[in-house]
Specification:
It holds the Pfam family GGDEF. It comes from Qiania dongpingensis. This is GGDEF domain-containing protein. This protein is of the alpha+beta class. Helix content is 41%, strand content 26%. The strands form two sheets. It has a five-stranded antiparallel β-sheet with strand order 2-1-5-4-3. A five-stranded mixed β-sheet has the order 6-8-9-7-10. The longest helix has 30 residues.
Length: 299
């Protein structure tokens, strides 16, 4: 059977929307009809497709660039789209065709029957549900963050330290510990107010944070005590880390009403799985340093 022009016209009349768009310029060069624009006279030849079809002023963000993603002869690219003006779901199918050296997007648009009668209101409700799910996930993430982080300083908290003792730090390896104590927190709170004390805590925490990385974790254990656990370090690296933090703290103290008076204790072991004992050693040395500072009247 020969496909005559009469038969071709008959086929075109049965299609809900057939169109041809010049791929580079997005200009419509042929269209049979378009469901959502038929009541207002339909789209016009010579317009860009996103304006002719959907009344948009900018290209559709969901529409793929076929010239980059598809070769001639590739299977049609298909996706569903909800058209809010008509309240209809549309199935869009198109492919890339080159004719006389020009690339065209050839496709059709079919209305998907709304058998459940959902329409636009249901789509809005789906969107609202998606927002609620997103807000729930954000709230869950915030709760997990607050369970593991100190709210004032942003460092890990004692809860996370206790969990890490049972999981992260069970493998025997070299560990280095730096134990910090802020000597003049009570003085800051008594002489000024708690906001001044909070500022000292944040300043020390920010100085500690500059030394943290993938294998170095910083914790605020509570009150004025902070801890760094460094897995796989040498004794010399641990000493340099302590000196770098104290140097950073001195720089942050410049121009402040109160400087941070800090006692630091350290401990290192080349292969241990008893991290708690190592922390106790660092804690003991920190208190020895604290007594030395008080004895010299430099607190």
């Amino acid at each position: 059977m020969e496909l005559t022009q009469d038969l071709l016209n008959g086929l075109l009349g049965c299609a809900e929307a057939l169109y041809i768009v010049e791929e580079v310029s997005k200009t419509v060069v042929y269209i049979s009809c378009f469901p959502s624009r038929s009541k207002t006279g339909g789209p016009f030849l010579g317009e860009v497709c996103y304006k002719a079809f959907l009344g948009r002023e900018e290209p559709c963000p969901f529409c793929p660039s076929l010239s980059e993603n598809q070769d001639d002869g590739a299977p049609p690219y298909t996706w569903d789209y909800f058209e809010p003006d008509s309240g209809q779901w549309l199935k869009i199918k198109n492919r890339l065709v080159t004719s006389k050296g020009i690339q065209y997007r050839v496709g059709n648009i079919n209305v998907i029957s709304d058998m459940m009668g959902l329409g636009c209101d249901a789509v809005k409700e789906v969107g609202m549900m998606q927002r609620l799910i997103l807000e729930r996930d954000e709230m869950r993430d915030q709760l997990f963050y607050e369970l593991s982080h100190d709210r004032l300083t942003g460092l890990l908290n004692r809860n996370q330290y206790n969990r890490d003792l049972e999981s992260v730090y069970r493998e025997p390896k070299a560990y280095g510990i730096l134990y910090f104590d802020l000597n003049n927190l009570k003085e800051a709170n008594d002489r000024f107010n708690h906001s001044e004390g909070d500022a000292l805590l944040r300043r020390l925490a920010d100085s500690i944070r500059t030394a943290l990385c993938e294998d170095r974790f910083g914790y605020r254990l509570g009150g004025d005590e902070f801890l760094i656990v460094w897995a796989g370090c040498s004794k010399e690296e641990l000493n340099r880390c302590r000196d770098d933090i104290l140097r950073e703290l001195r720089q942050r103290d410049e121009g402040q009403r109160l400087v941070c008076s800090v006692a630091v204790g350290d401990a290192w072991n080349g292969c241990t799985k008893d991290l708690e004992q190592l922390v106790l050693e660092a804690d003991k040395r920190m208190y020895e340093e604290k007594r030395r500072i008080k004895g010299h009247g430099t607190e």
